[in-house]
Amino acid sequence: MSCLQTIQDYGLRAIGYGERILPREGYDLCQQFTLIGSGLIWNLYFAVLALSIGFFIATAVALAKASGNPWLRQPADWFIFLFRGSPLFIQFFIAYEALVLLPRAGIDILGITVQTSWLTRAWAGALIVLILNTAAYSANIFHGALMAVPRGDVEAADAYGMTGWTRFRRVIWPSMLRLAWPSYTNEAIFLFHATTLVFFSGFPAFQQQGDALYYARFFADRTFNPFVAYPIAAAYFIAATLALIWAFGRVNRRLNRHLPGAAKRIRYRPLLLR
Amino acid sequence: MFSYCSDPSQLEGLVWLSCYLTTGTHMLFYASFGTVLLLLAITAPLALLLGYGGAMASRSGFAPLRWLGKTYTSMVRGIPDILFFLFVPIALDQAFEWVRHQVLCDSSQPVRQGNDFVVCAAAKLPLNSAADWVHNAYGLFLAIIAFSVVFGAFAANVLYGAMQAVPRAQLETAEAYGMNPRQVTRRVLVPQMWVYALPGLSNLWMILIKATPLLFILGVEDIVYWARELGGSKTSAFAYPHPDWRLYYFLALLVFYLLMTAISERVLGRVTARLSRGQATLGGEAQRKAVPA
């Protein structure tokens, strides 16, 4: 079987197109590169959606945490404590077990039956967990940045007569993002790497449609050789991480464009933040 | 456990629960919390040691050693840690078995035959005849090595950054006093780096705590394994039948982890305050001013 044929058969296997059965023989480099690469679609899907939705929730939670009203602040504190204080792995299990308990037939709300079975599938259930998880971590980062917004910026906005939403959108929010961005880049990388956990926790891989690491383990188990499949997966992740750092670096430059010399390259220092 | 537990089917309510929660398998479940704590207790110092080695190697003047250190410190940046947790144990296991195969068996036979990894019976680790606990202990041993390697790389990142953060002037002063490089490292660099390393190391400790449930992926009978085993629905064939209670077991694990992280945060806050004392940093300055003259 030529490599082109393999790519046609397995290039989109992770999302259910192409050959139905996973390869049973050969396990050559072409197969491994193709299938692990197709698994990466899931990692990108989870990371992109979780980050883009979690970003807005995180901003809201950070504002709630910074608010003077205890009815807003307390729930925000608890939300952040709950999701930052427990392992993502356990969160996946709890979410899965809780979602499985929902009635199979769906829930009746005002005469309309809401289907719930899709929630137990990884693409929805795990995505919700990842969104909430990254929202909690990012909210903590954003809250720190919000506290560090220079007072002069806010006073200048006041002097221009800006209030409320306008002041927030045009002055406070951009400053907050600018200050939070290096840490937020770290968080994004962590979240991207955490997407590999999805198919190793409570959520089963439906019809063997898994992520890059799921297929890497598949090959490592079949060939008893971890020295091929895992480095391939690692290479994919390094490439994707570099792309992510590059994209976030572009945003960082834009956020700092009014400050000459301030837009330093983001140096990825893991762990100082999460 | 209790004398009244001899016939579980006759029990009701709290009495039933007290018997249920003290069965033999539940005792194993409680013991597995010890496994997690053991992993933390062994991994943390080992990772710190590896991290220190990695950071020192990255600063070395000898180029190959520096490259090795740099590779080690940067390997966790682009690659998910779970990948290492899957890779390191199986790679180590095969490495050990290969070495034993070369020594103990007829080494003319290749180890890799097609898609199989074949070593003779005498080279197997642990031996097929070994007791069950040996298999478990060996699995835990491989897991500890994997955790140490990964968190050692993380720690090397933190310590390298901390070493770079010690003011140059301090080191130059030490050199001006005629100390050789080794003395500069031992007397000036290492004592001063901790205050810079501590925020990163505290974070690392938190991440290590939150990584412990990954033992389950490595096949160790840890708390996640037992929570799934015990929580799964039990038919009336079992002494204590119950529906699917996995959610409650996992909620118990959640509480355990929340407690662990909350307590750690408190302790680490105190340690930070202690280490900032007398340091030329903002934290140290604030403490100095707080003390009434």
Automatic annotation (TrEMBL), chain A:
Show the Pfam families listed in the entry: BPD_transp_1
User: What stretches pass through the bilayer?
Assistant: 44-66, 78-102, 122-142, 188-207, 227-248
Subcellular localization(s) per the UniProt record: Cell inner membrane; Cell membrane
State the InterPro entries in the record.
AA_ABC_transptr_permease_3TM, ArtM/GltK/GlnP/TcyL/YhdX-like, MetI-like, MetI-like_sf
Give a yes or no for keyword Ligase in this entry: no
Write down the superkingdom of origin. Answer: Bacteria
Domain ABC transmembrane type-1: residue ranges: 40-249
Q: Name one GO cellular component term.
A: ATP-binding cassette (ABC) transporter complex
Recite the UniProt keywords alphabetically.
Amino-acid transport, Cell membrane, Membrane, Transmembrane, Transmembrane helix, Transport
Q: Which GO terms describe its molecular function?
A: transmembrane transporter activity
Q: Which GO terms describe its biological process?
A: amino acid transport
Question: How does the entry describe its membrane topology?
Answer: Multi-pass membrane protein
What family does this chain come from, according to its entry?
A: Belongs to the binding-protein-dependent transport system permease family. HisMQ subfamily.
NCBIfam families membership? HEQRo_perm_3TM (TIGR01726)
Name of the protein this chain belongs to: Amino acid ABC transporter membrane protein 2, PAAT family (TC 3.A.1.3.-)
Biological classification of the source: Bacteria, Pseudomonadati, Pseudomonadota, Alphaproteobacteria, Rhodobacterales
Automatic annotation (TrEMBL), chain B:
Instruction: Give the residue spans that cross the bilayer.
Output: 27-53, 74-92, 137-160, 204-227, 247-268
**Subcellular location, in the record's words?**
Cell membrane
Family classification: Belongs to the binding-protein-dependent transport system permease family.
A Gene Ontology biological process term: transmembrane transport
Which residues are in the ABC transmembrane type-1 domain?
Answer: 33-268
How does the entry describe its membrane topology?
A: Multi-pass membrane protein
Sorted alphabetically, which keywords does the UniProt record give? Membrane, Transmembrane, Transmembrane helix, Transport
Question: What is the designated name of this protein?
Answer: Amino acid ABC transporter membrane protein 1, PAAT family (TC 3.A.1.3.-)
- Pfam families for the chain: BPD_transp_1
In terms of CDD domains, this protein maps to: TM_PBP2
Keyword Transport among UniProt keywords: yes
Q: What is the lineage of its organism?
A: Bacteria, Pseudomonadati, Pseudomonadota, Alphaproteobacteria, Rhodobacterales
Query: What's a single GO CC term here?
Result: plasma membrane
Instruction: Give the top-rank taxon of the lineage listed in the UniProt record for this protein.
Output: Bacteria
